[in-house]
Amino acid sequence: MTIATTTTPLPVAAKPVPLAKRDSRTEPRLVRGLIIGFALTFLTVFVVLPLVLVFAQAFSKGVRFYLTSLADPEALAAIWLTLVTAVISVGLNLIFGVAAAWAIAKFEFRGKTFLVTLIDLPFSVSPVISGLVFVLLFGAQGFVGPWLMAHGIHILFAVPAIVLATTFVTFPFVARELIPLMQEQGSQEEEAAISLGARGWQTFVKVTLPNIKWGLLYGVLLCNARAMGEFGAVSVVSGHIRGETNTMPLLVEILYNEYQLVASFAIASLLALLALVTLIAKTILESQIEEGRPHSDD
Description:
With 298 residues, the chain is mostly helical. The chain has helices at 29-58, 63-70, 73-106, 112-124, 127-138, 145-150, 159-170, 172-185, 188-195, 200-229, 232-238, 248-257, 261-292. The protein folds into two domains: 27-58; 62-292, Orthogonal Bundle (MetI-like fold), CATH 1.10.3720.10. It starts with 28 loop residues before the first helix and ends in a 6-residue tail after the last helix.
């Protein structure tokens, strides 16, 4: 005797139907126009217009007066001091930033979180407060100031104090740019190079440095721009001594307060040019960094 059985087919999961590609810009055209118009207006008022006014005031008495203002001995001294300070502070931050990023990204050790916190400290402290710290350290009534002065060493109200203050407020830039980049890259390539017999310095020069070169240049660029434009900390430790401890930002303030408006805007135009060059170089380096990042396939 044969018993007929009926089997109920199991339900088959429906194959997901791909969603039709749709335009992500779902906002009405009027809303998009208002948002774009607001952004352009904001940039024009707060970025473009001030730059135009700086250059217009700088050349208001002609090119000859502009060049004469820049060739003034006090202006040349301020430009030279700004360049020297930037070179020294960027060089120190370059060494520190690479070493700190290497240690944080490649190794595990006690105090790692504390080191990261110290690197971020200048971002959370006012530059004026940073300058006051150096006054408390190296001033005539400071912690080590009397001992240094007794030995003929002058730091406060001199070039060393300007370099120290600038280095302090700018040292996060290189490290903060390299730390996430090195963490993203990992340490597999370095471990492979060491396993093949490469030494530590060879590994750094031939493996690590090529991988971080664009991020390193990006950090140096931002560090240099901040070093040349630093005002708060440098203003506190410089003493505003005419012709000796004035960087370009300080000289702009002095000339403006003395109603030498065209001369002050002439110096300010150099800082504005630095900002434009930094912006262009920043855009180029960002594109290079983006091209160098590994892209995951969806």
